Structure formats: structure tokens, C-alpha cells
Amino acid sequence: HAWLWLGLSGLVGFTIGDLCLFRAFVVVGARVSMLLMTLVPVLTAAAGYLVMGEVLSRQELVGMALTIAGVSTVVSERRANADGLLQRLPASGILLGLAGAAGQAVGLVLSKYGMGAYNAFAATHIRVLVGCAGFALVFTLTGWWPRVRPALADRRAMTSTGIGAVFGPFLGVSLSLLAVQHTEAGVAATLMALAPVLIIPVSVLLFRERVAWPTVAGAAVAVCGSALMFL
To answer: What is the pLDDT of residues 21-70, one digit of tens each?
Structure first.
């Protein structure tokens, strides 16, 4: 049971979801991609209801809405003419971003369904193993293997990717599975969507970036929405 559903989760979440998300970064940029990823909590809550019958309380739904609104404000900052800009973006990029969000949401719910009380780090191991097999199949079908050697030779890129793999697929994903074990998948996904908010203090302290007031207000709304879900 664990291998079947966690393996399927690895294919949907890692192979399909991450591949589409990273491609969306290239096509439409990180900011628009992250804006589309704010749909993950909503999609996760819907998938959780369909797969496991999870129902969120009214207070949790209000908290989720506030959090998503706050995160959307943060990631959409600096795009004054958002409607006009989105009309000029490639439709393929928007579809890739939506596919990435759907992959993340469905993968998370499948993980919770397949994991049960199973160890979250072992569950992540299964997901990564099957996800790697999925990427190998994609590389074989698309003929991308010749691109691997130049990538491995780029020490700077491999170092950054390696560090990101420790904090992302290892620690981040394992802790996210721990989260879904102890609360509804939609609530856990909403808290995970706070990444653009949590990065603001780092940007200010380390990179001396100036943060606009709408961003600060959006971050405050997102934090309040998160707190509301646990009052």
C-alpha cells in the first residue's frame, strides 16, 4: 500500500509537478509561477475532500483565504499592470504553472493517503526513488541524457542544487509529510505556501532589498490567516 501510493505520489509530485513548475520558471518567470502556485492550498483541499473526505471548518476556510490573499499580494508585487501583463504571457507557461500546482496538490494528498502512520522520512525516500525513475524515463523519451554531463561539470550549479536538495526534497518534503499526518492536507499546504512571505526578512537582512508597503501588508495578512487556522 505504501509503495503503491507513495510511488504514485512521487511521479505526480516530483516528476510531473516539479518538471512543469521548473519549466514555468523559464517560460513565464519565477514571480508569475509562484503566483500560480498559490492555488496549491485550494487544489489540495479539494483533492483531500475527494480522496479522503477531509472537510475544513469555516474558520479554517477563512484563514486559508486570508493566507492565500496575503501570499498573492506578496508574489504579485511590482506588477502594477497585472491584467495586461498576463494577457501577453505565453499560454504554455500559464498551463505549465497550473500543471505544477496541480501536481504538488495531488502529490501531497496521495502521500497522506499512502503514508498513514508510516515514517515520514522513509515515505520521502520512496517518493524520491520513484520520482528519480520517472525523470530517467522522461530523459530517455526526450533524449535529454546528453545534457546531463555538462550540467554535472558545472560545480557552482551542482553545489547550489545539492544544497537546495537537502533543504527541499529531503528536509522540506519530509517535514511537509509530517505536517499532513497531523492536520488536514489543505491546512498543511496553506502553511507551506508561506515561503514567499518567509523569505522577506532574509531578503532585507542579507541582500538589503527594499520592501514595499503592499508587500509588508500582504505578509501581515498571510500570517494572520495562518494564525486564524489554529485559534
So the answer is: 999 988 888 777 887 888 888 889 889 988 889 888 888 889 888 888 88
**Rounded to whole angstroms, how far apart are CA atoms 193 and 185?**
12
Measured over the CA atoms of residue 168, residue 109, residue 191 and residue 216, the dihedral's sign is positive
112-157 tens-digit pLDDT: 999 989 999 999 999 999 999 999 999 999 999 999 889 899 999 9
Give the Cα separation of 72 and 125 in Å (integer).
32
Phi first, then psi: give them for residue 140, nearest 5 degrees: -70, -45
Report the distance separating Cα 192 and Cα 120, nearest Å: 16
Let me know: does 84 contact 20? Beta carbons within 8 Å. no
CB–CB of 170/124 below 8 Å? yes
